Predict the structure.
Amino acid sequence: MSQAIRVVILAAGLGTRMKSRRAKVLHEAGGDTILNHVLRAALNVTRPEDITVIVGYQADEVRDSVKTAGIRFAEQHEQKGTGHALLCARGVIDTEKGLLLILNGDGPLLKPQTLRKLIGEQEQNDRAATIVTTVVPDPTGYGRILRDESGMVSAIVEQKAASPDQLTIQEINPGLYCFDAETFWAHVDEIRPNNAANEYYLTDMIEILRRHGLAVAPLLVADETELLGINTRIELAVANKLLRARKAEELMLSGVTIENPESVAIDMAVEVGPDTIIQANVQLRGRTRVGAECRIGAGSVIRDCDIADGVTILPYVVAEASTVGKKASIGPFARLRPDAHADESSHIGNFVELKKTYLGKGSKANHLAYLGDSEIGSGVNIGAGTITCNYDGAKKHPTKIGDQVFVGSNSTLVAPITIGDGAYIAAGSVITKQVEQDSLAIGRAYQVDKPSWARRRREQIKKSS
Ligand code: UD1
Ligand code: CA
């Protein structure tokens, strides 16, 4: 692209129809805020420094929600309309030559290709502006596109100002405009709040440019679902569904099997390798990366995890900010809390919880265990019901278990504690002292047997009743 491209994203409004205390652009669909989706599309056509977001309602929260560094912000203290928003941005945007791309901040489904096409059209034809239009079955609420005999856009009429005839027009303004920057800034002051709402409408720019004999061309986009503007939570749910479907399709086309695509929720930044199988109702959130040839069991919720190749996640695993090594097996019903690391070929079974714990290569914790603040070597067997007592009510303490250790079932390991390589912990032990390499530690009362006691008791009970 030859000309400088400056992008303005309008995100100052509250979004009254959301019936929310939160600014509209902060609501989430497809695993990210509405605004971040719009930004992602914009970042495909220009540098972060050339993007200005207009903030107003909950300005600080909106600023903080933006994940990309270098984006500029302009403040619109009072929301007096989309045209007024641009007036507020004048000091922040470089207003020289080039293209000025203005995007409503509430259209999260926008595709980068469409922006590129819009820019391409404007560059090629060199008009005052090119604006995206689309035809929708129900145009209620949108600005309607008026065209002249030659097919150029002569005006946008807002719903409230439209005549009964104009209300039947199904070609609408989705809120994506590409202006010649010099022309735009030369005429922006001509926008007047001459409407019932007393607002400065950006859409009035079309008529203004026409009055000066300048042409505004339409770019009619066929897929109207891409241009959906979110005004209500019903539209938010529609956008969420479409974004989820888009991500699932992208993964399936890249070689991932998704058994029930409409049931999964996979965030935009998630990566999944080929020949991985994703079962129903799986959620892969945040920055999760799943390798090739894995299986992600039904109902698992995985956030910000790194999962290597060939891993089996059985159903209903909840994992966050953890890593899983090659060919490991996790679940069903396991929980990896932040900083859990299950190394290559390790096994974590049902009702096992790991937190800030490293489980070495080939080690197993197959049933009912809590392993916290622990470092566990390779080839270790953690018996059912093992608990690391890492918390004394005030502080957390570490547990260190060497290689090839056998921890018998129902062991209680009171941290801080170290268990040497090859040691053996008898089942049911409470271990409070360091266990040396290769030794057997038994920390429990010895068994006492009283022959015939049970039979005598039964006879006694029978006599007394
Ligand atoms: C706007 C258009 C309408 C179009 C529709 C597409 C105008 C006058 N109308 O109407 O033609 O069909 O979008 O969705 O532009 N905003 C600000 N400051 C303000 C007001 C709004 O930054 O003072 C932002 C909002 O945060 C939002 C965007 O501009 O992201 C659009 O505002 P909204 O109130 O949703 O406009 P619509 O009434 O839908
Ligand atoms: Ca809108």
About this structure: The pocket of calcium ion (ligand 2) is lined by residues 104, 106, 229, 231 (CB under 6 Å). The chain has nine helices and 38 strands. The longest helix spans residues 233-253.
